[in-house]
Automatic annotation (TrEMBL):
SMART domains, alphabetized: AAA, R3H
Organism of this sequence: Crinalium epipsammum PCC 9333
Residue ranges of domain R3H in the record: 525-589
Gene3D superfamilies for the chain: P-loop containing nucleotide triphosphate hydrolases (3.40.50.300), R3H-like domain (3.30.1370.50)
Name the record gives this protein: Single-stranded nucleic acid binding R3H domain-containing protein
One function term, GO molecular function aspect: nucleic acid binding
Amino acid sequence: MDENISLGRMQITDDLSKLLHILPEQIRSSLEKHPQQESLIEVVMDLGRLPEARFPNKAEYLGETPVSKEDINYCIQRVGLFSGDNRAGIERTLHRISAIRNRTGDIIGLTCRVGRAVFGTIAMIRDLVETGNSILMLGRPGVGKTTALREIARVLADELHKRVVIIDTSNEIAGDGDIPHPAIGRARRMQVARPELQHQVMIEAVENHMPEVIVIDEIGTELEAQAARTIAERGVQLVGTAHGNHIENLIKNPTLSDLVGGIQAVTLGDDEARRRASQKTVLERKAPPTFEIAVEMLERHRWVVHESVSDTVDTLLRNRKPSPQVRTVNESGHVTITRELPEVAPKLASSLQTPESAPNVRGWRSSGQMQPMPVSKAEIKIRPLADEFGEENSFEQLLDSSWHQQDIYAREHEISGPNGEDLPLHVYPYGISRQQLDQVIEVLNLPVVLTKEMDNADAVLALRSHVKNHSKLRHISKARHIPIHSIKASTIPQITRSLRRMLNMDDSGVGETTDLRLFSHNGSEDEIEALEEARLAVEQIVIPKGQPVELLPRSPKVRKIQHELVEHYHLKSTSFGDEPNRRLRIFPA
């Protein structure tokens, strides 16, 4: 009989009675009377020792009689066959029984793990699952990787209607027996005869069964890592788990490093080494990562999300600290997303100081000044940060000033929307980047809620080209009296201005402070430094002095966010030069 446990919006289903049924009488009776039975993780039985029950925060002995050979044989007779990895199961359940053998091959110990199907456990990363990108789950044993994998397979198959094939090496995802457990929904399951053949079954699944998604648990060998890359390059979405708590563990693991792109030593030229202020031999990523997204499951309700594995690996190889998302969920099921910015003050402050105050800085940052285009003979020098804020904590104070948040939405005062509706304003986005919308709403603390149902919307925000080509959208909004607000392009400045107009907020000019988090995609050191450089150029040279400015060379991705920041000031900018020295030129209004 199934047992259902409610946890916020999550539904937990297990068949604990079937696991208890295989245990000897004295152990079973102790567990059936135990007050914490519903949180049982596993039962450990070792020959000659007291049986042990393990719970999330403690472990305790069950009775005072040591486990005998007869007790172990009693359990073995009631479970399925043990495979090559010494694992067995109970048919039509998710429980896992693992064996410990002596030197002659006899089983002298059992670990009976409780298998639970948790519905709703992936609420924290559901938006990532829907993107179609490959996702790698990392975490210590027992944190819930396989449970999350099972739920992802069900959501992809049942709710997103994709062809999903599960490579179930130990029958842990879909349970023991030929009929898979209902927890995987419409997903199909392929069993593996021996663990060492897992990589062959992965390739066979793609070649024979036309999947859109492959789900694989515990990628642990080099052959499996190569098979995963082959599958990803064929356009199939991969969802898998690997051994390791963090991405750093995979980078240092020569067997699995290919999952994050592989690592190789590269010798730089003299100019490039000076530009980076590094040694001539450095470590770099060898290829695009197999998995675009990585999730570190630190705890059951606290996950760290790396939205771009390639950016994270590149940042780590440069001895910098990445700034991934931290997602948590409370008991009511509400998901909170935060991002901790790395500590970049020392390097950035030194890059903006003069040579006198930072004599060790080399390369193209050594001048310590930003110059406009040669309009006159006089050079315009940006005042050193230390002069304005003092010698210590100069950059921290600058960031505090730059990121100062005004309370746009005072909750103690009743505010109405543009048409008199109650706030928060429900907006139906069409053709607009959901990530950019969420970023603007979160950073500016706007009273806006995005909705997927037009019936619940107070307004529509859409690309202008989509509105022109979608007569049905116009007819529906007209019939339901829902105003349409259109923007030319899905950029941060245009989204910001449009949402502020919807809320009747003054957007006549640019405020004294600009929140750089609006434009930063992942909060990396390069992005923050480039945005701060562009902001200083605009506010200290282009606007007050009316002179154009050339910025330092940046990558295409970083130049894009610099363009968006310049657009926020209602100025124009262009990129010029050849890679890797291509850079931005900002023009006065």
